[in-house]
Structures are given as C-alpha cells and as structure tokens.
C-alpha cells in the first residue's frame, strides 16, 4: 500500500487541487493507496477547505500550532498504514500525476527510495543553482553516494527506511536532506527520475529575503551532523553497512 503524505501550511490557493489531482492519479495503483493531509496549524482558509473535501482515500490530521514542515511529514508517517511513503508539497510545484510512474519504477527495480529529479533547477538563477549544487556535492561526500537532487519534496521511500531516522529529522527544513544523507550512509538503493517542476502558488516559507542564506547555512551544517548521527542509529538497530554488502564465500 502507498501512503501519500502532504504537509500543508497556509496553502489555500492550491491545496484542494493538489489533493483531488493526487486522488485521481493514484486510482488503480497496485496495493491501494491513502492520502494523509497534515494541516500544520494553518491560519488562512486552508482548514475550512480541507473539511469540505470528501474523498474516501483522504485522512486529515491537524496540528494546533505551526510546528514545521519536517514535523508535519513525521506526523503523516506516524499515521500511515502503507509500506511505502510518498511525499509531495501542497503548493503546486510538483505534479501528483508523476507519482504512479515513480511508484512503479521503485518497485520494479527493487530500490529503497526514488526521488523526483527537478532538471529545471539546474538552469535556475545563478546563486540558487550554485548554492544547491554546493549542498548536493557536499552531501555526496558525506553520504558516500551520488545525489542528483538533494531536497526534492516529491519522493517515495520504504516506510521502514524513513522511520529509522525519525529522531534526526528537524521540525522545520529539511527532513529530505537528512534522509538523503542517512540513506546514503546505509548504502540504500536510491533512484532518480526526472519530473516537471512548476512555480509555486502562494508565498514561499523557505527562502524569501535573508531567510534564504540563513537556511543555506543550516542545511550545510545538517549534512555532516546527519552523517555522524546516523551511524549510531544504524548500530543500535543492527543495520550495519556491512549487512548491505555481499559477503564472498571461500572456494
């Protein structure tokens, strides 16, 4: 079963469209699906809009106050019934129509996670493009895996993998960066699939004004921290890297 988690904060302009499109796109996926919309303490018209959406697949969870994107995703994971967790933002930047293709590919190739690769961002504004590239290359060094997209919000991951590092995820941004580093250190099989990426509806919560450079600094510090902390979790859970490697037999 696939559980789609949608973290939501003040997305009145796009949230209903994203949820209905997600429901339409996921009809017929193998094993069934559910949509978990986590309203992270929205103060606009979002709560009222969510109450009016009547879909059998939809479950709505509400935080009383805004606790952050990462915290909202973790709440969704805690309520999920599926063996696979998909995430998508509620601001219209990602296309839910891409999810069935990604879900099919991650299962066919028996991978642990598949990430939507936003090719458009490699041609974006100079500062954004180079800052994102620096983060990605630093994460590759710290995680030991090649990374095509460090913080894409559209991805599908085995629930057991994303849950394993739950205690490390920041309440705000970026759960996805921490997950990429931890999964890389575990030598998980990660696939990348090109997806479309559009302009968001509404105001960005991540990078307006001076918040952009500050977030870059935080993300840069998150990467080595996650690499170090994930080792302890793997040791405690018995998920040692050596268990992922093929052990040669003596002839």
Structure description:
This protein is of the alpha/beta class and 251 residues long. It has a single domain (2-238), classed as Spore Coat Polysaccharide Biosynthesis Protein SpsA, Chain A. The protein has helices at residues 15-26, 46-51, 69-79, 99-108, 126-143, 159-164, 175-185, 211-237; strands at 2-8, 33-40, 58-63, 84-87, 113-118, 155-158, 190-195. The chain has a seven-stranded mixed sheet with strand order 3-2-1-4-6-5-7, sandwiched between helices. Helix 5 (126-143) runs parallel beside helix 7 (175-185) and helix 7 runs parallel beside helix 8. The longest helix has 27 residues, at 211-237. The protein is globular. The N and C termini lie far apart (42 Å). Mean pLDDT is 90; it is low at 240-251.
Element-by-element helix/strand order = EHEHEHEHEHEHHEH
What strand line-up does the widest sheet have?
3-2-1-4-6-5-7
Mean pLDDT: 90
Show unreliable segments.
240-251
CATH architecture: Alpha-Beta Complex
At the third CATH level, what is the topology name? Spore Coat Polysaccharide Biosynthesis Protein SpsA, Chain A
Annotated CATH homologous superfamily = Spore Coat Polysaccharide Biosynthesis Protein SpsA, Chain A
Indicate the proportion of strand residues: 15-25%
| Number of helical stretches of at least 4 residues | 8
Largest sheet: 7 strands, mixed
Total domains: 1
User: Approximately how much helix is present in the residues?
Assistant: 40-55%
Q: What is the CA–CA distance across the termini? A: 42 Å
- Tally of strands: 7
Radius of gyration: 18 Å
- Give the C-level CATH assignment: Alpha Beta
Structural class: alpha/beta
């Amino acid at each position: 079963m696939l559980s789609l988690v949608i973290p939501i904060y003040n997305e009145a302009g796009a949230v209903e469209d994203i949820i209905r499109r997600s429901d339409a796109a996921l009809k017929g996926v193998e094993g069934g699906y559910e949509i978990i919309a986590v309203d992270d303490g929205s103060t606009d018209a979002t709560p009222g809009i969510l109450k009016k959406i009547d879909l059998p697949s939809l479950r709505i969870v509400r935080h009383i106050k805004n606790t952050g994107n990462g915290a909202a995703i973790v709440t969704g994971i805690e309520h999920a019934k599926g063996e696979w967790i998909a995430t998508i933002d509620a601001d219209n930047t990602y296309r839910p129509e891409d999810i069935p293709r990604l879900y099919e590919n991650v299962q066919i190739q028996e991978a642990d996670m598949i990430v939507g690769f936003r090719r458009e961002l490699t041609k974006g504004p100079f500062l954004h493009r180079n800052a994102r590239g620096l983060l990605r290359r630093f994460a590759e060094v710290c995680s030991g895996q090649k990374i095509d997209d460090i913080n894409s919000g559209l991805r599908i991951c085995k629930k057991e993998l994303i849950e394993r590092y739950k205690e490390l995820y920041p309440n705000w941004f970026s759960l996805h960066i921490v997950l990429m580093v931890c999964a890389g250190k575990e030598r998980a099989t990660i696939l990348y699939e090109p997806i479309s990426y559009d302009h968001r509806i509404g105001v960005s919560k991540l990078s307006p004004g001076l918040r952009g450079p500050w977030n870059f600094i935080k993300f840069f510090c998150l990467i080595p921290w996650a690499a170090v902390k994930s080792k302890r979790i793997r040791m405690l859970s018995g998920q040692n890297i050596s268990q992922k490697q093929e052990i040669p037999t003596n002839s």
